[in-house]
C-alpha cells in the first residue's frame, strides 16, 4: 500500500495519501515501525491485516517521482502491479469523498502516471481521496 505525496510537505492536500498511510499504520499498531529503506528511497512499515502481510510505503520523493520508489519496493518485496494499492489525492472528487479504481489512465495525476510508467502497467488498484478544487 503506497501513499503518494510530496515527502516532507505534510498537511498539504496533495500529500493526503501519506496521511492515510500514517493513519493505517496507527490502526495496525505499526506506527512505531516506520523505517527508512534506502533501497527504494521510502519510509516502510510492515503490518498484518485479516491474515494478509502488508508493506506500507511512503516514497521519499516528490510526487512526480513516486513511481520510482513504488517500483523498487515492488521488486524488493516480489510484488506485481496487481498486488499494489495506491492511495492518492483526487482533485475531481469532493473533499472527503473516496473511490476505488482498478486500472485505466492516470487521469492527469502525476504520481499515478509515475507509478504506471515505472511499473510498466496500469493494472494498479487506486484509492482516490477527494480533495476538491480550491
TrEMBL record:
Keywords in alphabetical order: Hydrolase, RNA-binding, tRNA-binding
Gene encoding the protein: Ptrh1
NCBIfam families linked: pth
Organism: Melanocharis versteri (Fan-tailed berrypecker)
Protein name as annotated: PTH hydrolase
Pfam families documented for this protein: Pept_tRNA_hydro (PF01195)
Domain of life: Eukaryota
Stored CDD domains: PTH
SUPFAM superfamilies assigned: Peptidyl-tRNA hydrolase-like
Gene Ontology MF: a single term: tRNA binding
Amino acid at each position: 500500500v503506497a501513499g503518494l505525496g510530496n515527502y516532507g510537505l505534510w498537511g498539504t492536500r496533495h500529500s493526503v495519501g501519506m496521511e492515510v498511510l500514517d493513519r493505517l499504520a496507527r490502526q495496525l499498531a505499526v506506527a512505531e515501525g516506520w523505517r527508512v529503506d534506502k533501497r527504494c528511497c521510502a519510509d516502510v512499515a510492515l503490518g498484518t491485516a485479516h491474515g494478509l502481510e502488508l508493506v506500507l510505503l511512503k516514497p521519499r520523493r516528490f510526487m512526480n517521482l513516486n513511481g520510482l520508489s513504488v517500483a523498487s519496493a515492488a521488486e524488493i518485496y516480489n510484488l506485481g502491479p496487481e498486488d499494489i494499492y495506491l492511495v492518492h489525492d483526487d482533485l475531481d472528487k469532493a473533499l472527503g469523498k473516496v473511490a476505488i479504481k482498478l486500472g485505466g489512465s492516470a487521469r492527469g495525476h502525476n504520481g499515478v502516471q509515475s507509478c504506471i510508467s515505472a511499473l510498466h502497467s496500469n493494472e494498479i488498484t487506486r484509492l482516490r481521496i477527494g480533495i476538491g478544487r480550491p
